Amino acid sequence: MRLQAAPHSGNVALKVQHVSIQSTRSSFNALSGNLKGSLILLVSAALFAVMTLLIKILGQHLHVTQILFIRQIVMALIVMPSIMQGFPGAMRTAQPHLQILRIALALTAMLMGFTAVIHMPLADVTALGFAKSFFITIFAVWILRETVGPRRWAALALGFAGVIIMLQPGTEGFSGYGLMAVASAAAAGLVMVLIRLMSRQDSPTTILSWQAIGVGIAVAIPAIYFWRWPTGTEWFLLAAMGVTSYLAQITNILAFKWGEASILASLDYMRLIYATILGYLVYETLPGTATWIGASVIVAASIYSIWREARKNQQLTRSPAGRGFTN
Predict the structure, then answer these.
(1) I want to staple 265 with a disulfide (CB 3.0 to 4.6 A). Which of 50, 221, 318, 320 is the partner?
(2) How high is the pLDDT of residue 309?
(3) Does residue 216 lie within any of the structural domains?
């Protein structure tokens, strides 16, 4: 005897799935803003950790400029509708010198940061990347004339002490790639301050357009020079890296849209936990004592700086844009 499916079984399954999605959405909307933001930020932190892992895997066979070039192409394709809506008007800027400087610094931050990721344990480079918040404070005082009290300066000094503990200068554990990770954090910190300065005259779309086009053009020539044709698996990983980079930044922004920045910024340090787990699962490596001590000092000093910003009603370090891995 031949069995036949009920004529409406497919429709019933779709209705059940729709009801389940609606129920999940309703449950999420019922949560408080801070809880919603926290849950989304945990996802964002995980995506950033996966992104760094993909960069590290790809960097074993592909040159860093090639990885960055393809990443820019993928991300540019995703945001192209937003760019094209205002093109070519979106490229008009009152401060082209700052736009070019920002592109150069962003390129420096990404090249050095990606190189450090490829050659260092994931947890180490992730922890050193958090030093960006200290550089943001320094550059904000220098360029934006923001006021920083003695407690913030003390937290800043403590944070850099944590960086030195991790770098271990003068010992066998010292690595030039660690310096590159710190230099990347410094360049990224200066980029964030420049964005704050440029946003006084240029729109976010203009800044985004110059970034997407400028970095892509700048990295194209070295990427072609060092080009090695990727395998099928590598093409998949490159596309996944680009999409993951975009999703990480979007979820990061959405998280801060829902929750209070002073609360969420501290949760962002879950990236270090994720990076440690991924490093162990993929490479069977765990951070050493110096990394644990230095990272703890860096995170503690960063969280204190964010808390002081909240008390002073400042936004730069704890803003969603200030939390990104790259710019």
Answers:
(1) 318
(2) 67
(3) yes
Question: What is the residue type of 141?
Answer: V
Residue 49 contacts residue 278 (beta carbons within 8 Å): yes
Torsion angle in degrees (nearest 10) through CA of 314, 317, 322, 325? -170
In the chain, the amino acid numbered 206 is T
154 in a structural domain: yes
DSSP state of 229: P
Q: How far is CA 270 from CA 36, 55, 85, in A?
A: 16, 19, 36
pLDDT of residue 86: 67
Helix (H) or strand (E) holding 207: helix 204-225
Q: What averages of pLDDT result for each successive group of 10 residues across the chain (327 residues)?
A: 52 54 60 76 91 96 95 85 71 84 92 95 91 85 80 86 87 84 92 83 77 87 94 96 90 76 71 92 89 90 76 54 45
Domains identified in the chain, total number:
1
Burial of 32 (0-12, 13-18, 19+ CB in 10 A): exposed
**Spatial distance between the Cα atoms of 246 and 9, rounded to a whole number of angstroms:** 38
Contact 107, 65 (CB under 8 A): no
* Domain contains 254: yes
Say whether 94 sits in a helix, a strand or coil.
coil
For 316, phi then psi, to 5°, come to -60, -55
> What span, in angstroms and rounded, lies between the C-alpha atoms of 128 and 130?
5
Give 75's DSSP letter: H
Q: Coil, helix or strand for 227?
A: coil
List the one residue out of 122, 150, 111 whose CA is nearest residue 45: 122
The per-residue pLDDT for 323 is: 45
Residue 166 token pair: 């991790």
Structural domain range at position 211? 44-323
